[in-house]
Amino acid sequence: MFSKMFDCKLFFSSRSTLPFPGSQDQYEVFIKELVWNLFGEGNDVFKEGEWTKSIEMYTEALSIAEYADSEDICVPTGLLEKLYANRAAAYLNIGLYDQALEDCEKALQLNDGNYKALYRKAKSLKELGRHQEAYEAVAKCSLAVPQVRRQTRTLYKSFIFFLNNTETPMGMAVGMPDVKGLPAAVDLAKNPLADTHEFKQACSICFVKTGPGVLDYTLHTEDHKCKKDALLGRFIHSPDKSWKLIRPRPTKTQYVGPYYICKEVAVGKECLYPGHCTFAYCQEEIDVWTLERKGFISRELLFDPFGPSSNVRLTVPKILQEHHGIFMFLCGVCFDHKPRIISKTNKDNPSLCSHPVTKHDFEDHKCLVHILKENTVRYSKIRPLTPYCQLDLCRHEVRYGCVREDECFYAHSLIELKVWMLQHELGITHENIVQEAKKFWNATAMLQGSQLSTVQRRFGPPNLKMMFVCGQCWRHGQLNEADKNKKYCTAKARHTWAKDRRVVLVSSHERKKWTTVRPLPTKKPIPSQFEICMHVTAGKKCQYIGNCTFAHSAEERDLWTYMKENNIPDMDQLYEQWLQSQKPGWGEETSSNSIRENGKQIHMPTDYAEEVAGNHCWLCGKNCNSEKQWQQHITSDKHKDRVFNSEDDQNCWQYRFPTGTFKVCERFLKGTCTEDDLCKLAHGEQELKEWMERREFLLMKLAKARKDHLIAPNDNDFGKYSFLLKDIK
């Protein structure tokens, strides 16, 4: 029965083609949830101004509802009327008044008291020139609206105002900001660029820069031996027939938000960062980058319109080559804990997790996680692929955090989306993904090792110089190393050269000043990354009584990190290895621990094996080994700024940051305000509207941080963001 059911337009969805494995009751629940989910997604893209995409979402939901009715599955009537009414609003915004009127009639057949459908019907009739019918619809609307004044004149004026403004669909999440300038969403079932864009290959000889602007290029058609190393694109139906250069997509950051046009280029100026700008220069570039990042097109396929499907076959090595990092299993219970805890397998008992207290059954609760170690450690959970999963990114998670968390049908990170696509194509399990990742990095390590076998290496961090000197001489400002026999220092006093009398000095390329380094902290477990002492950062002397486990300089932090990554537990072993490095021929040897790729160390799975007993802040990528350290972190100004700020937030807003006073400046309206950006009041209704939207957006981020316990329960001190907690008067 179910195989037949899924043979005919499975779910009517372009995003899922997986057979449903459950019972009939589970299937009915799934169909209803899918309709609700598409309804919510339609509302979201409507709010972002993507009218055509919202129509697709509403239409897909109605198609599924129609199919469900043929299978005796009852979708709520209230949901159907909202779908018709909201699709009518979308049709109105793109000028399809006949279709809007038809949808309003269908909504009114389900509920003749639906006042939103009535006023959208009135607006459709007005635009179609049927003014008498429009007036009658307004009159009916006045009777349908609950809890309004009875004065016909006031009610009529209110509806005229409402009809002249952009519609807001029913069921919209409260406080969802109106994001401007986002690129159109992508139809994931096929490559949409084939119908809207055309592409061409060129080179620096035929595509020549003719002006100061980044878009000032001219394409020459003379015959020549073209290298075809540049991609050009343009819209098929656009009046502008000039070709635009489509640069390679920036991949140095793991950015998952929407791409934006460079602000300087948008206003006709020259880009401040030519050759390095990570913003797009044209809409064609945005469209290509968006699909490239999701893995649905490759540049080579753009030149073969009759070629294979635009879906690029994914493999685990391809994913790791683009995103780096490693896949491994962690304890799912600890990972989902608020705040997050990173627990691997217990060294003494691999069947349990490494948490010192709870010790969950690891096999029953393990979850696949992608770990990327750069300046900080970032963990991205990979949820199992189910028939509910939609192969697209969750727009809520990207911006301020999805409240549905694991119940959300959409991917919460780009790496999760890629893994889902990989599983959908190949049916690979999480266990196989982990094994493939290990094989890939082992093969990469061997390859890099063979390439570097004859390359000269140096001991210690690459940005530091290191030397061991006599401690007694150093206290008097003298630099004296050991003599040839390593028994005395080279000073006239000939101090004994012993392990308790020598100190290690390091000098960075930036400071060029010798600095002492204390022994590596013996506190267990060793943190994933070392932080600089907060007192030292503030320019003060460390106030900690005893051995401070925080680094007292950037050089000390770098050397501690080097010792940890190379399993050097103390200064004695550091000294012995340093002595070995001074011998001739040492630099020609190779070590698996020092294999590097493009100047960065290749991190093997064992490099992530540190035991983390405390809480992990996913915002900052910081592990805290004690409750005191955790409280210090979540109350710090740097962390609080991360709660409210992210990489793409600044690109979503056109006006100033809210001052906390949500009123329009009367002097600005009169043209007499002289304070400019220093004015505490909004300069116009548009700025005030954006301030209100931004406040709601920041409140969502704050709510997400509180839910994840990344903000102390009673902490209401947020600096410039404290206005969020005040009521708007």
From TrEMBL:
Biological process according to GO: miRNA processing
UniProt keyword annotations, A-Z: Metal-binding, TPR repeat, Zinc, Zinc-finger
PROSITE patterns hit by this protein: TPR (PS50005), ZF_C3H1 (PS50103)
Protein name as it appears in the record: C3H1-type domain-containing protein
Keyword Metal-binding assigned: yes
SUPFAM superfamilies: beta-beta-alpha zinc fingers, CCCH zinc finger, TPR-like
GO molecular function, one term: zinc ion binding
Record domain C3H1-type: where: 393-415, 527-555, 659-686
Organism classification: Eukaryota, Metazoa, Chordata, Craniata, Vertebrata
Database matches in Gene3D superfamilies: Classic Zinc Finger, Tetratricopeptide repeat domain
Cross-referenced SMART domains: TPR, ZnF_C3H1
Residues making up the signal peptide according to the UniProt record: none
Residue ranges covered by zinc fingers (C3H1-type): 393-415, 527-555, 659-686
Pfam families assigned to the protein according to its UniProt record, in alphabetical order: TPR_1, zf-C2H2_jaz
Mapped TPR repeat ranges: 81-114
